[in-house]
Amino acid sequence: MELEERVAALERRIAALESATEGAAEGPAGRAAGRVPVSAAGRVPVSAAEGAERPVPEVTDSPLWALEALKAQLAADTGGRGEDGAVVFTGSVGLPTRERYEWQFGAFTGQLFEEDWADAAESFAALGHPVRLRLLREILGGRRTAAELAELEETGTTGQIYHHLRLLTGAGWLRTVGRGRYEVPGARVVPLLVVLTAARP
């Protein structure tokens, strides 16, 4: 079995495990572990199914409505454990391929400062090349195979494209779906766009 196929199989198994633990993380045990209640799942991505019933956020004139909702949620649900605050990112994204993703994640500030930030280096490093960012954009736009990506100008040789694709796959920004086809995992679509938004000058 080729390495790419083995990685794809592993990614499918991880996705199945994440789905299985999603419901469990939403309960009291998930909150006790230091997760932000508004994220409903801590480090497990939450993706609301289209058409599923979910609470409608209160409409407010404040430009900081999301921040105010986070603070209110922390005050109501943390029992004082969220006194250092929290961060949350979320998005409702429609892609050119007509796929739609709704996703939300959060973590307490104290939890973030307890973690080793060096663990994120590989993920950020994979994004640190203009060709890799271009490949991600094109894949989100519907180009899924290395052959389609090789048709683009200024992306390098086929060998260089495969090198970039391997790095992105290894860092979790891409996964293989079938032989020679790539996609951004659903749980990574909004985080990728959040990272790009945060990097804007």
Key attributes of the depicted protein:
mainly alpha; Arc Repressor Mutant, subunit A
What does this structure look like?
- The chain is mainly alpha-helical.
- The chain has two domains: 13-108, no CATH class; 118-199, Orthogonal Bundle (Arc Repressor Mutant, subunit A), CATH 1.10.10.
- Helices cover 49% and strands 12% of the residues.
- Strands 1-3-2 form a three-stranded antiparallel sheet, sandwiched between helices. A two-stranded antiparallel ribbon has the order 4-5.
- A hairpin with a 5-residue loop joins strand 4 and strand 5 (182-183).
- Residues 17-56 have low confidence and may be disordered.
Give the gist of this structure.
By secondary structure, the protein is mainly α.
Total domains: 2
- Per the principal axes of the C-alpha atoms, what is the gross shape? elongated
Give a count of the beta strands, DSSP E runs of length 2 or more: 5
The separation of the N and C termini measures 44 Å
Widest β-sheet, arrangement of strands? 1-3-2
Radius of gyration over all CA atoms, rounded = 19 Å
- Class inferred from helices and paired strands: mainly alpha
Write the layout of secondary structure elements.
Elements lengths: L2 H23 L2 H5 L13 E2 L17 H13 L8 E9 L5 E9 H6 L6 H7 L2 H12 L4 H5 L7 H13 L4 E2 L5 E2 L2 H14 L2
Antiparallel strand pairs: 1-3, 2-3, 4-5
